[in-house]
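Re: the request from the purification team.
They wanted to know what the chain is likely to look like in 3D before they choose a buffer screen. I agreed to run a prediction and write the result into the notebook, where they can find it.
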Amino acid sequence: MGFLMPAETTKDRLVEAMHRLPADATIEQAMEHLYFLAKVDRGLQQADRGETLSHEEARRRLLG
């Protein structure tokens, strides 16, 4: 996945993400795609810092 390579700048990653969208994508779809990529990136950074939950803890939080 080229858009997650750490050597790339944010601008490089944005340009690559836009190139991956279909030609008829709407602005809203592009924004949703970028928001999704930002959330994935944030999650990967959190995981790298060890800020994760066990499966049991995640399940407990989701199911109450």
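For the purification team: The two ends are 35 Å apart (CA to CA).
Please add any questions underneath this entry.
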